[in-house]
Design brief:
about 200 residues, alpha+beta, 60s Ribosomal Protein L30, Chain: A, 2 domains, 5-stranded mixed sheet
Length: about 200
């Protein structure tokens, strides 16, 4: 695996800036890969990892850069829990490790560099240097991946009987003899609502 500095450069390019969250994400992903023995996550080991991320912030982009896991490859799974945490799953053997940033790391950054007034700069410097055990909590976990969740899964593609849009990966329901997309089956759960033409 590349060095921390090399991975931070790649993360900065992908995300648009370097911040404390990017450093946490890079280090978190490096640690996850190390624990699983995945040496080249974007190379020869690229099909071994599925990563669950629990926050949609800067760290998420960094984790994707290090692991090579992407939403479009179905290898990055988002769970909106608002936690600076990720679970790394080795699909080759089923082993999984969940890594979460310790809340105490912010206070530790203040202790290490009280002379740095800017909180982000303070954390950036500390997060580069702190040992893994001060920065992260680790837990071996079990993750059951349904065959539909694996990268490369090809499910039935059907059209919604209500809106006519195509539906992939078995993300449909059957109601009263009709095949419906999730939005048409439960319009109250849509993230959008039709507004008409402006």
């Amino acid at each position: 695996m590349e060095s921390l500095d090399d991975l931070l450069k790649l993360a900065e390019e992908a995300h648009g800036h370097l911040c404390a969250g990017q450093i946490l994400g890079v280090r978190m992903a490096m640690l996850g890969c190390q624990r699983l023995g995945v040496d080249e996550p974007r190379g020869k080991d690229r099909k071994r990892l599925v990563t669950f991320i629990e926050i949609d912030r800067c760290a998420t982009d960094a984790i994707g850069v290090v692991t090579g896991c992407r939403l479009g490859k179905r290898a990055l799974k988002f769970r909106d829990w608002g936690k600076m945490a990720a679970t790394f799953v080795d699909v080759a053997n089923g082993r999984a490790v969940r890594i979460a940033a310790r809340e105490s790391s912010k206070a530790r950054a203040r202790e290490l560099y009280p002379e740095i007034e800017n909180k982000n700069q303070q954390q950036m410097r500390a997060y580069r240097e702190m040992p893994d055990e001060e920065l992260f909590a680790e837990e071996w976990v079990e993750v059951t991946l349904d065959p539909k969740e694996f990268p490369g899964y090809r499910g039935e593609r059907v059209a919604c009987d209500a809106c006519g849009e195509g539906i992939n990966y078995d993300r449909f329901v059957r109601q009263e003899g009709k095949t419906l997309c999730l939005a048409c089956a439960a319009p109250e759960n849509r993230y959008y609502r039709p507004a008409g033409n402006p």
